[in-house]
Amino acid sequence: MEFPAAPARRGLVPWLGVLPSVFLLTLWIPPTTARFAVVSTSALEGQDVILHTHNRPPNCAGFIWYRGDKTDYNHFIASLTLHSRRSVRGPKYSGQETVNLDGFLTIRKVTLKDTGTYTVIAVLENSLREIGCGQLDVYRPVSVPTLLASNTTVTENEDAVVMTCHTDASSTNWLFNATSLRLRKRMKLSQDHRTLTIDPVRREDAGNYQCKVSNPVSSTESAPVELDVKY
Ligand SMILES: *[C@@H]1O[C@H](CO)[C@@H](O)[C@H](O)[C@H]1NC(C)=O
Ligand SMILES: *[C@@H]1O[C@H](CO)[C@@H](O)[C@H](O)[C@H]1NC(C)=O
């Protein structure tokens, strides 16, 4: 079994150099839906991440990992040959990646730049190969949002109040007295959920409002804004 090393030594074309046509001929697509794939993963910046695979075929001889969805030498990160435990590093090796004996790729201390597609080839005995890919998304922790109200002392049935959650997070939810806000008919959320309008206010709206923002790996809440309703 040949694993990618440096390109063409002694005039030989390494097998990576003749992709993708070789691939199409030898790629083995299992007859079931149990396709070999990289498990798509979300992570917080600075974490160590393990990119697992689903449905690893039996009798693997080794694994080759690539950054992106292309399997040419320029995208090659690292490979591992199981019987010899020999690993080879490629142009996309950054010093943080390791292929382990299960064929998973560990990336130490991920950064936002590690976000993207990863492709793995499982090299089987009898020179068949299976290819799988998946996505890694790296996020920063969301910052604490600021909640501002148009007015915090309002009169029942006369006034409206507009609350705005200042955030750049992708998801915003609202809390009333520390539990999820139940939207009433008089309440309206903007399309991005960052603005809450209560029109008119009623005495039962009095209490503490917060917005809670999140991304796939972290969440945080604003300081509470207390709404006082006179009647
Ligand atoms: C807030 O509402 C109260 C009661 O209706 C009103 O008297 C006050 O002027 C409002 N304050 C602001 C800043 O709009
Ligand atoms: C919400 O909290 C405020 C202040 O603690 C309290 O006066 C009010 O009764 C609470 N409202 C509800 C519906 O729990």
From TrEMBL:
Signal peptide: none annotated. One of its GO terms (molecular function) is protein tyrosine kinase binding. One of its GO terms (cellular component) is cell surface. One of its GO terms (biological process) is regulation of immune system process. The chain crosses the membrane at residues 12-30. Residues 141-228 form the Ig-like domain. The keyword Oxidoreductase does not apply. SMART domains: IG, IGc2. It holds the Pfam family Ig_3. Keywords: Glycoprotein, Immunoglobulin domain, Membrane, Signal, Transmembrane, Transmembrane helix. The keyword Transmembrane applies. InterPro entries: CEA_cell_adhesion (IPR050831), Ig-like_dom (IPR007110), Ig-like_dom_sf (IPR036179), Ig-like_fold (IPR013783), Ig_sub (IPR003599), Ig_sub2 (IPR003598), Ig_V-set (IPR013106). Belongs to the immunoglobulin superfamily. CEA family. PANTHER family: CARCINOEMBRYONIC ANTIGEN-RELATED CELL ADHESION MOLECULE 1 (PTHR44427:SF1), CARCINOEMBRYONIC ANTIGEN-RELATED CELL ADHESION MOLECULE 19 (PTHR44427). This is Ig-like domain-containing protein. It comes from Myotis lucifugus (Little brown bat). The lineage of its organism: Eukaryota, Metazoa, Chordata, Craniata, Vertebrata.
